[in-house]
């Protein structure tokens, strides 16, 4: 038979062990790294890629057969696409309001209304991709942290991005996925689907990283999945398993960054 004193001693010891274990769990929980919010992740990614410099700078680069210039200053922006480096022969200009104008030898020319939006979208798209993830804090952007996932042994935050109809442009229905490295906040992979021209899905792998005046530029390998609209979250596994078809490389040539210093 167990005595009353022995029983009390047992339960006292048992309670003490339970309390110590509970305190230990609390300490471990408090020491565990906290997952940052999606806004904190995107802010860090933009800062890491040179966002504060991009805010007020002129950026020049060549893409395929055209020359591009982006000027951002005090919240305003002008995107240009030119046929020659000096921007004399033909210059397309897209301003902050979304107005598109084409100049030929410095004189504005008429562009059919049916083509204006197509040209504007083309100019905007090249400039948008050239400085990603800059732009992910635009008012029309909705961001969601899906999870933390490994790709080729590297840990990434997987961020889903969608757009509101108001301010999201003609392609507001497109969906994006960004893979942002958990250690240094670089964007190493991007996937998106689109609805125009019968629609489709693409997966892009960043390579050839360069830092120019504090701004990160990368080129991309552009892949296509076997099916038209697979879940974007499936594409990293398909990439690792060599199930994607390489369509092209997207190369930003000779990028220049000229900071604008306000008076």
List keywords for this structure.
263 residues, outer membrane lipoprotein receptor (LolB), chain A, 7-stranded antiparallel sheet, 5 helices, 25% helix, 41% strand, Deoxyribose-phosphate aldolase, DUF6503
Write structural notes for this entry.
The chain has 263 residues and is of the alpha+beta class. It has a single domain (41-259), classed as outer membrane lipoprotein receptor (LolB), chain A, CATH 2.50.20. Helix content is 25%, strand content 41%. It has 5 helices and 14 strands. The protein has helices spanning 4-31, 38-48, 51-54, 113-130, 235-240, and strands spanning 57-63, 66-73, 76-82, 91-95, 100-104, 107-109, 141-151, 154-163, 175-181, 187-194, 200-212, 215-224, 245-250, 253-259. It has a 7-stranded antiparallel beta sheet with strand order 6-5-4-3-2-1-14, with helices on one face. A 7-stranded antiparallel beta sheet has the order 7-8-9-10-11-12-13. Strand 2 and strand 3 (76-82) form a beta hairpin. It is globular, with a radius of gyration of 25 Å. The chain starts with a helix and ends with a strand. The mean pLDDT is 89.
């Amino acid at each position: 038979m167990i005595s009353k004193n022995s029983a009390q001693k047992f339960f006292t010891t048992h309670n003490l062990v339970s309390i110590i274990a509970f305190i230990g769990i609390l300490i471990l929980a408090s020491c565990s790294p906290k997952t940052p919010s999606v806004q904190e992740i995107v802010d860090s990614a933009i800062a890491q890629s040179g966002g504060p410099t991009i805010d007020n700078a002129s950026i020049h680069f060549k893409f395929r057969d055209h020359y591009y210039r982006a000027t951002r200053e005090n919240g305003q922006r002008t995107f240009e696409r030119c046929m020659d480096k000096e921007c004399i022969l033909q210059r397309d200009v897209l301003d902050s309001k979304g107005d598109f104008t084409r100049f030929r030898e410095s004189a504005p020319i008429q562009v059919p209304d049916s083509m204006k939006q197509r040209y504007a979208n083309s100019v905007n798209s090249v400039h948008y991709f050239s400085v990603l993830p800059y732009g992910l804090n635009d008012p029309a952007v909705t961001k969601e942290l899906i999870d933390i996932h490994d790709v080729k042994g590297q840990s990434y935050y997987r961020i889903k991005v969608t757009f509101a109809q108001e301010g999201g442009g003609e392609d507001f229905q497109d969906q994006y996925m960004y893979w942002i490295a958990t250690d240094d906040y670089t964007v190493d992979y991007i996937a998106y689907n689109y609805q125009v021209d019968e629609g489709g899905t693409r997966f892009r792998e960043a390579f050839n990283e360069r830092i120019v005046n504090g701004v990160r530029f990368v080129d991309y390998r552009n892949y296509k999945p076997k099916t038209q609209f697979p879940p974007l979250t499936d594409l990293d596994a398909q990439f690792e398993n060599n199930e994607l078809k390489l369509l092209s490389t997207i190369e930003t040539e000779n990028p220049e960054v000229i900071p604008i210093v306000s008076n």
